[in-house]
Amino acid sequence: MLKTLSGRFLFLTIIFVMLAEVLIFVPSVARFREDYLLSRLERAQIASLALLADDMIDEDLEAELLRNAEVYNVVLRRDEVRQLMLSSPMPAPIDKTFDLRERSATKLIMDAMARLFNPNPEVIRVIGAPVREAGLLIEVTIWTKDLRSAMIDYGLNILWLSAVISVFTATLLFFAVRMILVKPIKGVVGYMQSYAAAPEDARRIIQPRSGVVELREAEEALQSLQTELTAALRQKERLAQLGGAVAKVSHDLRNILTSAQLFTDRIEMSEDPAVKRMAPKLVNSITRAVHLCESTLAFGKAEEPAPRLTQVHLADLVEDVLDSERLAVGDFDLSLADNVPDHLMVRADSEQLYRVISNLVRNARQAIITAGKPAEIMVSAEEMADCWKVRVTDTGPGLPPKAKEHLFQPFQGGARKGGTGLGLAISSELIRGHGGNLTLLQSDESGTSFEISLPKGDVAEI
Question: Which residues form a coiled coil (predicted)?
Answer without folding.
Answer: 215-242
